[in-house]
Amino acid sequence: MLPLCSLPKKASSFLHTHSLSLSLSAMEETQIASILKSSELYPIPQSVKLSYGTAGFRADASLLESTVYRVGILSSLRSLNLKSSTVGLMITASHNKVSDNGVKVSDPSGGMLSQEWEPFADQIANASSPQELVSLIKDFVKKEEIAIEKGGGEVWLGRDTRPSGERLLRAAEIGVRSVLGSVAVDVGVLTTPQLHWMVRAKNKGLKATESDYFENLVTSFKCLIDLIPVKVEISTLLLDGANGVGGMKMEVLRGFLSNLDVEIRNTGRDGGVLNEGVGADFVQKEKVVPLGFGVKDVGMRCASFDGDADRLVYFYIPSESCGDKVELLDGDKILSLFALFIKEQLNIIGDEGKQCRLGVVQTAYANGASTDYVKGMGLEVVFAKTGVKHLHEKAEEFDVGIYFEANGHGTILFSESFLSWLVGKQKDYSEGSDKHNAVSRLVAVSNLINQAVGDALSGLLLVEVILQHMGWSVQKWNELYKDLPSRQVKVEVPDRTAVVTTSEETKALKPLGIQDAINAEIKKYQHGRAFIRPSGTEDVVRVYAEASTQEDADSLANSVAQLVKSFLGSS
Ligand code: 16G
Ligand code: MG
For a pocket test of ligand 1, which of 112, 388, 403, 535 has the largest count of ligand atoms closer than 8 A to its C-beta? Predict the structure, then answer.
């Protein structure tokens, strides 16, 4: 603890010039002093306004130390607010360039930070002085009735492979510890989903180390492999690790797996740069091969992770004449494969299995053909706003909720009650029977697939085992349905917040009149669909368009982009 006499000059004068000190206990005074002192180490950079946004703070790494330090404080408070449960703090900027970094918080459930805390995150990140920071914290602690004097907060800190990660992690540690009695545990270089998984496991009283994470994947994957009715020859999977943490972890994991032959490229050790011309975001947006892949790989099953391995897409190069173009199997195709497999197991269980509420959650970006496909299977489909936290919340409403964004973020959530029903049925049905096998497969899927957040490693293992189960090649999987041609463009405008959409982001409510104009454009195209939304991560308005031909999708996207410019002006 910091004795008051060691207060920096500015800090002690703050205590005296603010009558607050009169009513503060010695403990509170010591706490305030601690934050004032440490925050002086991390002044905020001039003229930068940061927002927690869709998935945490992101910026050029050189600007982030004060933010990460402050998110450290927030994480300790969150832990204290939830009876000292363990909270996770992840330092990553996902698919963004290597010079960027970011920070986000995992709640004790393993899910994203409660959205109710996001405004506080924004406020403290932008507080212009240590004094303002302390004052915001004091107000918040009071409002949320956080028992700060008890201490005992615990925050696990993870980071991806970015060179700036270590320095930022030190800032996070100081932030966490400046809330007196809170501990920061450095859990090392991890994928984002690993940290979420570990935090969830820790708070459930389960084994929660990184080795436990791997062991869980290996055991449940093996269980699903053992339940495959007819074993097939497996071909090699080519993995693009985005030169990030995901490829590195897959190298460890594959050592423990049989029945998966994976060649990992773009590991980051071969001189490649994180996310530069590689990775799931690049492949999904550009629909071209990542660096390190080419004509020699024609027809092979390939997968790509993003920089922190919470996105997964598959692809293959159809023929030599296609140049660098790939056939993409995005999050929607992965979702469809998962839905098909789970539905098949429920059908085997029979009438009781059909009682299970199996639902699918997508965003407005889901290809219309995928939505038709899952609806055609008789599944309920609901739409959520872009961003994992929104999809996750809706998926929790089902017994089995499968959610995916087209960009490859997604997972399958099993409700506690459905899981215990399944476990009960495992005892009821005779071992080796079809029903027993189906129930056992579902239990294994619930263990394999990350219940905290979308996870490229566990998603990849589930795709691989399902393909083996079905005896399918990647091409056969791709034939589930044919994507409608689509196009995404972004428009730089003076103020993207001028665009306000409905909750599912399919219609623009503001600026007034723009939706009617978009509708008029859509009507000109067969299977036309388009929408606009302000990005949550970049200062742009995004436009999405779909139509029956690529030319039409391009043309619709361009006309809608023109409308955005004429209604909002271009910057
Ligand atoms: C973030 C989100 C992702 C979303 C994307 C949208 C998480 C973990 N990540 O990367 O789900 O698709 O933002 O970006 O929630 P945008 O708002 O710039 O289009
Ligand atoms: Mg990511």
Answer: 388
CA-closest residue to ligand 1 atom 5: 387
Which residues are annotated as catalytic? 94
| Ligand 1 centroid – CA 533 distance (Å) | 12
pLDDT band at 26 (very low <50, low <70, confident <90, very high): confident
- How many Å is the Cα radius of gyration of the chain? 25
What pLDDT sits at residue 61?
A: 97
Please list every protein residue whose CB sits less than 6 Å from any atom of ligand 1: 54-55, 94, 386-388, 405, 407, 409, 535-538, 542
Q: Which amino acid is at 68?
A: V
- Closest atom of ligand 1 relative to the 537 alpha carbon: 18
Among 20-29, 292-301, 471-480, which stretch is predicted with the lowest mean pLDDT? 20-29
CA of 387 to the centre of ligand 1 (A): 5
CA of 322 to the centre of ligand 1 (A): 30
User: How do residues 122-176 score in pLDDT, each as one tens digit?
Assistant: 999 999 999 999 999 999 999 999 988 888 999 999 999 999 999 999 999 999 9
Beta pairing partners, 463: none
In sequence order, which residues have a C-beta less than 8 Å from that of residue 142 and are 6 or more positions away? Answer: none
- Beta carbons of 502 and 547 less than 8 angstroms apart: no
- Backbone phi, then psi, for 79, in 5-degree steps? -60, -45
Q: So what's the pLDDT on residue 24?
A: 63
**Which residues are within 8 A (CB) of 330 and not within 5 positions of it... i.e. 6 or more apart?**
284, 313, 367, 406, 407, 408, 483
CA of 332 to the centre of ligand 2 (A): 17
The residue contributing the CA closest to ligand 1 atom 3 is 387
Q: Which of 384, 433, 427, 430 is nearest to 409 (CA)?
A: 384
pLDDT at 54: 82
Contact 279, 191 (CB under 8 A): no
In this model, does residue 250 exceed pLDDT 80? yes
511 pLDDT above the threshold of 50? yes
DSSP state of 491: E
